[in-house]
């Protein structure tokens, strides 16, 4: 199992310079490698298959050409190459992902990842500092304890748009929990809802608390203020920073809420079944658009996954093409005419009245039970 821990770090001015330099080098290498690939517009018909086979030059080759790349952590450069390769992999697997984009210097959020090699990344001084290659000891606020049984795999250093620095430490550990074989009554089916966070098969839903919704309204208002400021002016910049801080706060509150909900579910149920949705495709569909992204469903699923695994339980993912909404949970007849707007519908086969989301969650659960061999 992998688990990520994120902490605030406080680099000294010298360390900050080095971090910024590394951001720059990583971005440069990424963009340089990307630029050397043939862009889709240049692919001709005979070329159709070739882009996949185009080779990258290695970071080492770039270092000969641009010797200043040697000044920064070489593992960060390797990770830039891996990131680009995975961006291409995603693109070739699913064209909706879009062709890899150049990274901008102007993006306020910058990051790089480096790996732990036999203790090169470690906590020191009882957790007051973290040691990072090329940076030395950086002051860290360790608000959570990393268990002894966890091994550090890698660390990502990032700068947020409000100018704060964080480190995300990825750890590996073996779960000691014995796997629990779930009882059918203890299996929960969840459907993602565009309005609430989720709706389960008993028609219970979890929704975001009011304070989070209020924060989002506040954010929108602040954004309106920004639009009235002169772009690039000092008041504009002040407002921009204000919004960045607010954004961070909302994101943290949302995360906190998702942690609480997922923890509670993972403690109550022995297995949870969800649909393996393609979030990108879903957020692109206009009607569901924004609410889906705000819901942070991807994050919620990740939290659920490891919180269940920590307890020897399972998160069962079912195929995203499974017709969960349109199928009657009682007689399995499929209602082909069901539209997104219809929240309640009557089955033509058996005459039962269905609440759209609860019926879908019930179907998801049934499919999960089948996959678990409990049906
Ligand atoms: Zn029916």
TrEMBL record:
Describe the location of the Cas12f1-like TNB domain by residue ranges: 300-364
Any one Gene Ontology MF annotation carried by this entry is: DNA binding
The Transposase putative helix-turn-helix domain covers: 1-38
Among the GO biological process terms of this entry, one is: transposition
A Pfam family reported for this protein in Swiss-Prot or TrEMBL: OrfB_IS605
Q: Is NADP tagged as a keyword? A: no
Q: Where is the Probable transposase IS891/IS1136/IS1341 domain?
A: 173-285
Key words, A-Z: DNA recombination, DNA-binding, Metal-binding, Transposition, Zinc
Q: Which family does it belong to?
A: In the C-terminal section; belongs to the transposase 35 family.
Q: Which NCBIfam families match?
A: guided_TnpB
The protein's name in its UniProt record = Transposase
């Amino acid at each position: 199992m992998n688990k990520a821990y994120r902490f605030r770090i406080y680099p000294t001015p010298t360390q900050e310079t080095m971090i910024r330099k590394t951001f720059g080098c990583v971005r440069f290498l990424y963009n340089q490698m990307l630029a050397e690939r043939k862009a889709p517009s240049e692919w001709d018909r005979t070329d159709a298959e070739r882009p996949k086979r185009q080779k990258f030059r290695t970071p080492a080759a770039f270092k000969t050409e641009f010797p200043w790349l040697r000044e920064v952590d070489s593992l960060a450069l390797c990770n830039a190459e891996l990131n680009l390769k995975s961006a291409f992999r995603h693109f070739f697997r699913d064209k909706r992902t879009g062709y890899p984009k150049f990274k901008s210097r102007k993006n306020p959020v910058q990051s790089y990842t480096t790996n732990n090699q036999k203790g090169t990344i470690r906590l020191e001084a009882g957790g007051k500092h973290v040691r990072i290659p090329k940076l030395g000891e950086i002051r860290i606020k360790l608000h959570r304890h990393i268990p002894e049984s966890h091994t550090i795999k890698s660390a990502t250093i990032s700068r947020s748009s409000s100018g704060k620095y964080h480190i995300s430490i990825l750890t590996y550990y073996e779960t000691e929990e014995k796997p629990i074989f779930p009882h059918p009554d203890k299996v929960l089916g969840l459907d993602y809802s565009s309005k609430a966070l989720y709706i389960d098969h008993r028609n219970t839903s979890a929704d975001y608390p009011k304070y989070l919704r209020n924060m989002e309204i506040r954010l929108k208002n602040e954004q309106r203020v920004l639009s009235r400021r002169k772009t690039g002016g000092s008041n504009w910049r002040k407002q921009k920073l204000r919004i960045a801080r607010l954004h961070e706060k909302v994101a943290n509150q949302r995360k906190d809420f998702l942690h609480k909900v997922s923890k509670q579910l993972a403690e109550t149920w022995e297995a949870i079944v969800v649909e393996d949705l393609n979030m990108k495709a879903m957020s692109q569909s206009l009607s569901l658009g924004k609410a889906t992204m705000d819901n942070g469903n991807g994050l919620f699923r990740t939290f659920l996954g490891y919180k269940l695994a920590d307890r020897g339980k399972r998160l069962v993912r079912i195929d995203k093409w499974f017709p969960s909404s349109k199928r009657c949970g009682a007689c399995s007849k499929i209602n082909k005419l069901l539209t997104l707007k219809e929240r309640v519908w009557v089955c033509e086969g058996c005459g039962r009245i269905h609440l759209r989301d609860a019926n879908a969650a019930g179907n998801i659960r049934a499919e999960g039970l089948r996959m678990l061999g409990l049906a």
